Amino acid sequence: MKLVYVLGNGQLGRMLRQAGEQLGVMVYPIEPNMDPKKLLISQCVMTSEIEKWPKTALTNMLSKHHAFINHKIYPILTDRLTQKQLLNQLGIRTTTWQLLSSPAQWKQIFSSFGNIVIVKYRTGGYNGKGQWRICSDIKHILPNICYGRSIVEKIVHFSNEISLIGARGYDGRTVFYPLTYNFHQNGILRVSAVLPDHHIQQKKAEKMLSMIMHELNYIGVMAMECFIVSEDLLINELAPRVHNSGHWTQNAASISQFELHLRAILKLPLPAPVIHMPAVMLNLIGIHANMKWLSDPHVCLHWYDKKVYDGRKVGHLNVVDVNKIAISKALHTLIPLLPSEYMRGITWAQEKLD
């Protein structure tokens, strides 16, 4: 079986490597500045855990290489301008948006979008970085470098934030996980909750993501983040990779999102994963490991072994059981073991489980 190289050497690459071990597949996360001559390109399949990388000898070569799965697609989906243009061309609803080219646009923007808007860099800018909440009297705080490099979006009043994670194989077959509810604080995903019961929006979401993956001839796992607005779905973002909101699959599904991605890019069987139980995933952000988290048998720790600093994702907890009450009780045991800012997310998850 071919080697798998993963461009990027963060936690997603680490978890892809762990999933590869179960399959007997050698998965090597690599840095973008690595010397291409040191890689066995002719014997590999290459994928990516990152959406924006520097221009190096390696990335320049990969941008044109057939071994790099989806290499023609990354430039489209990693730029919010071309991503939204693609979705609109397909007739798929997104948040209302436009390109932000110059300060002269502000009068028209506030007139059309309302008094408060969201500005996002076209590339990068995840986990609350490279994004600004702007109103008419503080627009001067926006760095000048943003003009021409950003889009502006209308504020969306939604009932829920959800994500759908699916995969597509070389033969066009698509498979999906259940819709996942997500809770964000300060632009960072804090908690995800999945209830295997059929969601009223499941088929609609699957149709949308299938259309996107088929249009792009995409291979592997893709994540689609949406807002639910009056029973309709508006796409917020697409991620051409395994996704934070799918980490629960490691402990609650027969096939994790990481194994599913490897299966797809390596032409292995791609059955629909079986979901064994409900799950809640808590991101561990900027805190040190506490082995007391493991006192409850429903709690599974995934630690990334990264240097801890404020705002950095350093691990996650999956809380799983066939009984939702047991999950809720396990979450309650974590409250005194986590910083106070986790209380809102845990309460939100417990309400979802009711």
Automatic annotation (TrEMBL):
Annotated keywords: ATP-binding, Ligase, Nucleotide-binding, Purine biosynthesis
Enzyme Commission code(s) on record: 6.3.4.18
GO molecular function, one term: metal ion binding
Top-level class of the enzyme under EC nomenclature: ligase
Catalytic activity of the protein: 5-amino-1-(5-phospho-beta-D-ribosyl)imidazole + hydrogencarbonate + ATP = 5-carboxyamino-1-(5-phospho-D-ribosyl)imidazole + ADP + phosphate + 2 H(+)
Pfam family, one: PurK_C
Domain spans labelled ATP-grasp: 84-266
GO cellular component terms attached to this protein's record: cytosol
Cross-referenced SUPFAM superfamilies: Glutathione synthetase ATP-binding domain-like, PreATP-grasp domain, Rudiment single hybrid motif
Subunit structure: Homodimer.
Family: Belongs to the PurK/PurT family.
Identification of the protein by name: N5-carboxyaminoimidazole ribonucleotide synthase
